[in-house]
Amino acid sequence: MSIARAVGRDAAWWSVGAGRIARHSAAGLMLLVGTTLLLWVAGVDLRWLGIAAVVAIGLALWARFSPTTFARVFTSPLWRRRIKRRVRTGWPALVESCGLGRTDRVRSVRELPTLGRLRWDERGNLAAPVVLITGQTVDDIDAIAERLRAAVDARALQVRANERRTGCELVWSFTDALAQLVPFVGPNPVAVQVGLDSVLVGRAEDGSPFNLDVRVSTLTVGATGAGKASVMWNVVLGQAPNIRSGLVEFHGADLKGGMELSIGAALFTRVARSSGEAVAMLEHAAAACDARAVRFAGSTRSHQPTRSDPVVIILIDELAALVAYETDRDVLKRVDAALRRLLAMGRAVGFYVFAFVQDPRKETVGMRHMFPQKVALRLDEAAEVDMVLGEGARRRGAEAHRISRSTPGVGYAVAEDGQVVRFRAAHIADDLIQLVASTNPAPRQQPISAGPSEPTTTSGAGGRPTSRRSGSPARKAPEGL
User: Fold this and answer.
1) How far is residue 100's CA from residue 96's CA, in Å, rounded to a whole number?
2) Averaged over 86-91, what is the pLDDT?
3) Hey, what domains does the chain have and what are their CATH numbers?
4) Which long-range CB contacts under 8 A does 256-261 form with residues at least 24 apart?
5) Within 13 A of 46's CA, how many CA atoms are on the CB side?
6) How many CB atoms are located within 10 Å of the residue 327 CB?
7) Angstrom distance (rounded) from CA 365 to CA 268
8) What's 254's DSSP letter?
9) What pLDDT band is residue 459 in, cutting at 50, 70 and 90?
């Protein structure tokens, strides 16, 4: 059966190839046949035609059995030359039709934005600088970016402005480097400590590692099935050695009954599974943040993680369930107040919020602007892209509303230089989460009491126990969680 399938595949390949040649090279075939007849009538030795036929068959066999090398040597260079010619010859008419032309009445000439030298980069993208005419801005090129993309049938087009926004570079992308799953590359399982500033989340479109800042509160937005869990678990598992050593603590809120976080619960110091537990956990975190700020005042302006003063990351699986969908108004107010305190004060003393949500509107996430770092996975509407990544993100190439449902984990982030980075978070299986959790458990795990009286808590790893009950003075707020 396998031999029959192989024969069938080969027959289909040759049939399709012959049909493609006949369809796209009819004129060439007619020329070949006509030339052959003329040579035969003229009595010319046709052995050279036989040699040519052997060469053609050899090329066909090469294309069949080594398509990668054949494409690299023949197909790709020809295709690239054709695309460059299409861009170069079509540029004047395209920008003219878009209204970017202007007549210089002094010299009586028609001025157009000038396209610089076209070049292919190592990632297979076609790039070219654009020299604007006087009075034009990069926004004028942004406005026709979609037409420039469609004109050459590219997958995407980025308009990269220079530092002063007096000119730009156009970068056409024709293939999707993120179409395949990205494997998880976590830290060395025997590592004592890994970097505390950033964590490897996946791979960027240019093939480089994509790292996400850890010590910055981060909002990740994506529709159902967009891959928010991939981003979440890459952040957690990437810090596993630091969790084991006590330099980093994760405190999670999962209002789906702990359905998402329970599989790796050993990595968390606390896991809230209800709104009551979540508000208690957030208020404990806010109080500990305040206490650490008071203790640091006058001695330091930046937090250096230690086992007694670890980095504390508050991870919220579905933020909207806490800040928008909760029916208890008192809980909503308490959650909002605690989160705003953490977002406003936490960075200086090592408290950060990593929140994940589906709906980025202000009506849902009122403190959206307080997250310095934002990530956009697949979104439902174009307007949501600018809500998440900032005004103009779509013009700079962030098309999160056009991400395919077949590529979960693909998203966009804005780098420190303002450039949009497209990436794909590594895929993480459940058994990997369980394995890492079993080998890197948090040194201390605490239950959460959602009642009016809070249990005794410790003042960080190895700290002295303190207690906080209803009505207790604010100065007795716990330093740790």
Assistant:
1) 6
2) 88
3) 85-173 (3.30.980), 198-476 (3.40.50.300)
4) 256/317, 256/318, 260/229, 260/232, 260/317, 261/315, 261/317
5) 13
6) 7
7) 25
8) -
9) very low
